[in-house]
Every structure is written in C-alpha cells, then in structure tokens.
Amino acid sequence: MILFFLACLTLILGYVVYGAFVEKVWGITNAKTPALQHPDGVDYIPMPTTKAFLVQFLNIAGLGPVFGALLGAIYGPVCLLWIVFGCIFAGAVHDYLSGMLSLKHDGKSLIFLMETYFGKRTKYIALFLLVSMLLLVGAIFAKSPASMIAKLSHTSVWIWLSVIFGYYFIATLLPIDKLIGRFYPLFALCLLVSSVLLIGILFTKDVPLFLNFDLANHHPNGLPLFPLIFVTIACGAISGFHATQSPMIARCLTNQKYGRPVFYGAMILEGIVALIWATLGMCFYENSSALLTAVNQVDTGGVVSQISQGLLGQYGGLITIASVIILAITTGDTCFRSARLSLADFLKISQDKLPARLALTLLILTGGVILSLINVSTIWRYFGWFNQTLAMFTLWLATVYLYKAKKCFWISLFPASFMTGVSCAYIAYDKLFLNLGSIPAHWVGFITILISFLGFLLIAPKTIKRP
Q1: What DSSP letter does each residue of 72-84 carry, written as one string?
Q2: pLDDT in tens, 222-253
Q3: Domains in the chain, start-ordered, CATH in brackets?
Q4: Is 407 left (phi over 0), alpha (psi -120 to 50) or beta?
Q5: Is the separation of the CB atoms in 242 and 98 below 8 Å?
Q6: pLDDT tens digits for 120-168?
Q7: Which of 33, 51, 373 is nearest to 182 (CA)?
Q8: Does position 212 have pLDDT exceeding 70, yes or no?
Q9: How far apart are CA 408 and CA 28, in angstroms?
Q10: pLDDT of 283-300, one tens digit each?
Q11: How far is CA 187 from CA 56, 191, 322, 326, 330, in A?
C-alpha cells in the first residue's frame, strides 16, 4: 500500500514541480487562443477548463491505461517505475508540447506540424501513417464492442457494428460540444470512480502489497524488459496516439495557462489510473504466472471482468463489461474525428460548412468500415511499435521547435532519444521484424540512443535556423 501511494504522490509532485518547469520553458502568453480567435461552432468552440480536462483525459485514456498496465504487471513491480518516471519526464512532456504546439499553430493537427518543422515532403508520409493508424484503431474499437454486445445479447454482430458506426457518423459530424463535450466528462468520471473504488476495496482485502518489491523481471516466459515493457505500457506512460487527440482540445481552450492542467495534467491522471490497474493485476492474482495464465485464457478484457467481479461481486463484472464497451466506443469515435480534422488540414478544407464536413466524414467512415470487415490482427500487432514511434517523432518535432525558439530543448531531447532507442530495439528484437534476440536488441537500442542524442547536438546548429 505504501509503495502505491508513494508512486501516486510522485506523479502529483511531478505535475507540480516538473510540470511547472516545462510550462516555464514553453513560456505562456496572453495571446488569444484559436477558440476565441475564430469560433466556428463545430470544432473551434470555447469549452470550460474542467470539461476540456475530462474530455482530454478520456480521449487519451480509454482502455489504454487499463489493458496496457495489466499486461505490464506481468513483468512485476518494476513496471511501476516506467509508469511514474515515463509519465512525468516523457508522456506528460509529449502531451503538453504537442498540445501547445497545436495551440500555437491555430489548433492544427500533427500533419500540419510535421510539415511546418520537418518539411513539405513529410506531410504525405504523416498523412498516410496517421490516418491509417486512426482508422485502424477506430475499426478495432468498433468491432470489439460489437462482438461483446452480440455475445451478451445473443444477436448478430453485424447489427451492433452498424449501430456503432452509425453513432460514429453522428459523433464525427456534429459539433464537439453536442456529444463529446456533453457526455464524455461523465464517462471520464466513471472510469476514475470505478478504478478508485476497486483499488480501495483491494486495500481492505488480505493480500500482499509489494512486500518484496524488487527490480527483477518476473515475466514467466523471460521476455526482456527492454524494449518490451516500454511498448506494452504505452498510454500509462507515453503514447504517440495522444498527439492525434490533443489538437481537438487545443481548439477549445480559452487561455494558454490552461495547457498545463489539461495536457500535462490529464497525462498525470492517466498515469495514476495505470498505477491502479497495474497494482490490481499484481495483487489480485497470486503471481505473474497466474496473471499471464488468466490473460491467455480469457484475454485482457476477461481479466478486467475477473478482478471487478472478484472485488465488487457478480454485478461488478457486468458493470465492468459495460464500462469496457463504452470506453472502447468513445476511443473509436475520437479516432474518426481526429482523422477528419487531419485530412481537412491536409486538404485545407474548412469544416464550418456541413457539405465539406459530411464528405470527409463519409470518406473516413467508409475506410473504417472496410477495415472492420477484414482480419487486422496481424496489422494490430504492429500498432504498439508504431504508437511509440509516433511518440518519438512528436518529441523530435518538439525538440526542433524548442531549439529553434532558443528554449530549453533538453526536456524533449532526452525522452526523444530514449524513445528512438526503444523503437529501434523493438525492430531488432521482435519476430515480426528482424528477430535478432534480446542481447543484440539491447545493443541496438543503446547505440541508437547515443547516436540520436549526440547526432542532434552536432547537426542541429548546422541545419536548424534560429531567429
């Protein structure tokens, strides 16, 4: 129990101390935000800060800090270190800088930012990769809840898939304050309340709570910590997916000073949720082997149900299944909305008129429907790597901006270099890529970190123009 609360306290102190430092490095001004400069009644809508915070939290969280943390818990208590320090020094920095860069550039999407700081050619690569990822995630989070509802109701999965895509169409098309701004804060609160309730009940049970804490790797199959745990626990520590969501809220903030609580703060809160579910995974089951066995037998969603039902009773499982369905659907619709905004930025099409918005919505959802009809399990296996690679590119983007603006670029250079090593080490290790084994992968990761870090310091003065 003490370790859990120390970890939570460290995250909160990280927000107070390091978050304030990052904000100071950025340098907030009194300039009008995009929401106040040109509200369009669709995407650029001033939103109360509390509501913006909760929507941002749900957008970036969803099932990520639940499923990822449970899978990371298989490695043992060492996973808590990555959640805490990864969140403070990498994930929250990533989310804050990507959100503030969007805020600075009129609420534009990551595609626009890539073009601005990496050159025009990169926008085509960014468009393909980002939109593909968003459509893939959206399709998965339509098909998964549709299958779950079909099993519970003994009806056709195609009926529920049609219903979910119908909702996605409405949510993607309507102004952000009609559905997302109105109901998502409530869903975010449900995620928080259920997580806190479960951990609270756990502490009343007679279970060991990290009495033998160590930094050892407890994975039953001996899978290496580096780079796998840094890819497994993404949303609870750092996730490139967040950079696709922040522009939506950047178009709704009414003051730059709200950037730290909304962008940095939402990531810290997500880290706390990840700590809760990692703790639940390690304490509810006897050991890592038992947790891994449960994951293999009933998948991660089933593990969530087992924990909830075991701590809350038979109704707990039903409540959790309903929560999983809601969180999956809310993740899916923000993917399609983000894809619409990204495509609109690329094509330079204003979204305040219904016909233009309708055309892009239909195009994007058609792609999502097609992906939901095919087997994307193999492609999905690449998502973890791609997600962290996107985080790497976003951090390098922030580093270039900070260097160019003569600000303390070290805050993003260190995590950018580290995530570069993680991405390259994963390519070297994983069977879907080079399959070189853990030791070569470790060397690849270490060398890549060193080369990227020193390379930037040597190349930046010659290639990046400063005012």
Answers
A1: HGGG-TTHHHHHH
A2: 999 999 999 999 989 999 999 999 999 999 99
A3: 2-384 (1.20.1740.10)
A4: beta
A5: yes
A6: 888 888 888 888 889 988 888 888 888 888 887 889 889 999 999 999 9
A7: 51
A8: no
A9: 14
A10: 899 899 999 999 999 888
A11: 12, 6, 11, 8, 9
Percent of residues, the chain, with pLDDT higher than 90: 64
**pLDDT greater than 90 at residue 317:** no
pLDDT at residue 211 tops 70? no
Kindly give, in sequence order, each residue whose CB lies less than 8 Å from that of residue 64, ignoring residues fewer than 6 positions away: 234, 235, 236, 239, 241, 270, 331
DSSP summary character for residue 349: -
Residue 307, pLDDT above cutoff 60 = yes
- Report d(CA 202, CA 222) in Å as an integer: 28
* Residue 411: both structure tokens together: 């805050």
Q: Are 18 and 89 in contact (CB under 8 A)?
A: yes
pLDDT at 208: 60
Alpha carbon distance 346, 135 (integer Å) = 16
198: which 2 tokens?
A: 């479960």
Cα→Cα distances 73→46, 215, 372, 455, Å: 39, 12, 30, 35
List CB contacts of 340: < 8 A, sequence separation 6 or more.
172, 351, 357, 360, 361, 364
The Cα–Cα gap between 348 and 262 comes to: 27
What residues contact residue 323 under an 8 Å CB cut-off, 6+ apart? 190, 191, 194
**Pure H helices in 154-252:** 157-173, 180-202, 225-232, 242-250
231 CB burial (10 A radius; 0-12, 13-18, 19+):
buried
